[in-house]
Amino acid sequence: MIAVHSWAELSVFLAFFALVTVMGFIASGWKRADNHAKLDEWGLGGRQFGVWITWFLVGGDFYTAYTVIAVPALVYAVGAYGFFALPYTIIVYPFIFVVMPKLWKLAHSKGYITAADVVHGTYNNRFLELAVALTGIVATMPYIALQLVGMKAVLSAMGLQGELPIILAFLILAVYTYSAGLRAPALIAFVKDLMIYVVVIVAVVIVPMKLGGYGAVFSAADAAFQVKGGNTGLILKDAQMLPYATLALGSALAAFMYPHTLTGIFAARSANTIRSNAVLLPAYTVLLGLIALLGYMAHAAGVKVSSPTDVVPVLFQTLFPGWFSGFAFAAIAIGALVPAAVMSIGASNLFTRNVWKAYVNPAVTEAGEAQVAKIASLVVKVGALACIVFLPTKFAIDLQLLGGLWILQTFPALVFSLFTRWFRAPALLLGWLVGIGWGTVTAFSDGLVPVHKLVFGGDTYAIYVGLLAFAANVVVAVIANLVLSAVSPRPVSSQA
Amino acid sequence: MRWLLILPFIGLLWVPFYNFMEPQLFGFPFFYWYQLLWVPLTSLITYVAWKAGTEE
């Protein structure tokens, strides 16, 4: 079970992991208000995070461990196509700038904690609220599971095989999230991001120096793709351009519909905190672009792996002394804990507010809400852990693809009302149903690949299936709304 | 100035603009440095749209 790769590596790793664990427990007292037994406090950190904390929190929870492992893995395997994460994480910011301050203001003035709160408050429709809440909870589970995939990759590279180390790491996470709520990941994100920055800056400077410069890195990768053939290479094949652009757009629209990213937004102190972050957060995207290049550096370093998720760990072990790879692996593993904690908090906020309070106990007190959410966060984490222990990894990754498709279908219900009150709840609900239904069936019948081929006038167009489902969703919602307006005109008084 | 915010979408989602190897910069093919360049550019555009806007 345990065949330690390097004791120096493991010691450094464990030391940093211990440091972060201690911080997690300290966090429960950090910036604490008097009424801790309130969901605002536990689940949104008291809505008082300023520009810098929000920057670390959202950055730490949007750029996950899976990004650090999976993006370079895809780039290693196929080349340019794997870079769609780069345009995706650029265009997401103008979108955040336009939409999220509006959403924050609404949530802040009405005391909303979740996306489904917003939807219920806007449309006064329990079915639409439930649709948004359940989509959020279900879409988050595989996302948490993927954080574990990232963590597992570094643990097994260090020689810690099997499920026990992951289970231990998750127990620690569960306990400190339970006691400190959103404050724990916010404080840890600070340390984790500094560590990731150090690792990446060292890697992007030292690795090319060892391998003969970026020119050499790109030509080594080019040579590898020439041998490999197929849809690989340093630039996109013609047929890959549309999938590349639609994956980037669809992912950008979906990214901030997730409970964990919205939690980061709602926890901000003001609308201007969010605007500042729309300007400052792209710094992480530079990092992401450079991390992606690790996939090419692996080719230049002659790294050969059977599973692409091992590319980054093996590259670090090939090029760096044990103590530094231990530091890097600690950064990646802690980088898994931060988003996993925020995700479980976001999902449990949804459960508490929009399932428990709506259907089980409408009379729940504020203290009761916080208690239910804490327990729900444990259940969500155990669920994710079960995914990873009992299901094949491939299945978690496939579910994550579906998760992105699903969460995108909550976009119209959540975002459209910020700009127009034309849509009515039944129309949005029908659109959601068609988007989820058509998207899921199509993704399964395509064998769970992200791109669906449309034949149109003799030509074939390959488009991200989530974006197609979103288009279907919007079209159905518009048509249904037109029909609805014709059948029963809205009373004038509701046009408040 | 809000219309400026559409520029990153056009610049990045119309892939035929930048799907080339040449010209290279510091060893980076065009495809890579062009997209990386849009990161600071988008920050700048967002900042300009914010400060030039009338909201708050």
From TrEMBL, chain A:
InterPro entries: Na/Glc_symporter_sf, Na/solute_symporter, Sodium:Solute_Symporter. This is Sodium:solute symporter family protein. It comes from Ancylobacter crimeensis. It is found in: Membrane. Keywords: Membrane, Transmembrane, Transmembrane helix, Transport. Pfam families: SSF. Gene3D superfamilies: Sodium/glucose cotransporter. Signal peptide: none annotated. Belongs to the sodium:solute symporter (SSF) (TC 2.A.21) family. The chain crosses the membrane at residues 12-30, 51-75, 81-100, 127-144, 164-182, 194-221, 241-258, 279-303, 323-351, 372-393, 399-420, 427-449, 461-484. It comes from the Bacteria. It is a multi-pass membrane protein.
UniProtKB/TrEMBL annotation, chain B:
This is DUF3311 domain-containing protein. The chain crosses the membrane at residues 31-50. It holds the Pfam family DUF3311. The keyword Transmembrane applies. Keywords: Membrane, Transmembrane, Transmembrane helix.
